[in-house]
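Chapter review: from sequence to fold.
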Amino acid sequence: MTFCSVSLFALIAAALAIFIFRKPSKAELNKFKKEDQERFNWSKMGF
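The token string follows.
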């Protein structure tokens, strides 16, 4: 492997690791809670 391909692979691996291990923002958490709550309400209604 050349230095260019090794550095490109390292950059992609680092970006993927940062994406996987980052903390979710409050907006993302609120969206997840809202969708989860809506799903629970629909199941309670019998649909």
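Two observations follow directly from the output. The helical segments are 3-21, 26-45. DSSP finds two helices and no strands in the chain.
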